[in-house]
Design brief:
- By secondary structure, the chain is of the alpha/beta class.
- It is 43% helix and 10% strand.
- The protein is built from 8 helices and 5 strands, in the order βαααααβαβαβαβ.
- The protein has a 5-stranded parallel sheet with strand order 3-2-1-4-5, with helices on both faces.
- The chain is globular.
């Protein structure tokens, strides 16, 4: 059995949408490490389960959440936290491995169905990660955080992917690892597959 056989694509699916972090690429461990490093300077230990509930949200919202939670407003700010987090991530970003079972699906359907990436990452990081993984050519449509007003679990990211692919939402299939992304797919009236 090859990796793509792990997932079944329904016959009525006309377009595939992939989340990036934790779905196409095994980047969540690096992001978790980087967030911990950013906040540990203030003697704060983040909770992994709570962090995972924020997966898929833009980096600014995650930083603001933890700054407020730990009352760090007088010690740091969103920009400083993000700068430190990004420094850690960029040092290691080219080492991120693709998630073989999901990438195998993308390769199987490349040129057969329209495909896109809908992510809470900014465009610069999303494109860099896809290039480093050798996947950028498969995804002519990338909808990053800055392209939508409302982020996951709102449906905007995936609806924009569908629009740019020219596929009706009900004929799209979303690959996601995060609960917020699955909720976004449901709100967009799309089928979804949970990547674990």
């Amino acid at each position: 059995m090859n990796n793509s056989q792990k997932y079944t694509i329904p016959a009525d699916v006309k377009g595939l949408i992939f989340d990036l972090d934790g779905t196409l690429l095994n980047s969540m461990p690096l992001h978790w490490f980087a967030w911990q490093a950013s906040f540990r300077r203030y003697n704060v230990e983040l909770d992994h389960a709570e962090f995972m509930t924020l997966a898929g949200k833009p980096i600014e919202k995650i930083a603001a959440h933890f700054i407020e939670k730990f009352h760090l407003e007088n010690k740091t700010n969103v920009k400083d936290i993000i700068d430190e987090k990004d420094r850690v991530v960029w040092d290691e970003i080219d080492k991120i491995e693709p998630i073989a079972s999901v990438v195998s699906v993308a390769k199987s359907y490349f040129g057969k169905l329209p495909m896109s990436v809908g992510t809470g990452a900014d465009r610069r990081r999303a494109e860099h990660m896809l290039k480093a993984a050798g996947l950028i050519e498969m995804f002519p449509v990338i909808v990053p955080a800055e392209d939508v007003a409302n982020h996951k679990p709102a449906p905007d990211t995936f609806l924009r992917c569908a629009e740019l692919m020219g596929v009706a939402p009900e004929h799209c299939l979303v690959f996601e690892d995060a609960i917020s992304g699955i909720k976004a797919a449901e709100a967009a009236n799309m089928k979804w597959i949970r990547v674990e």
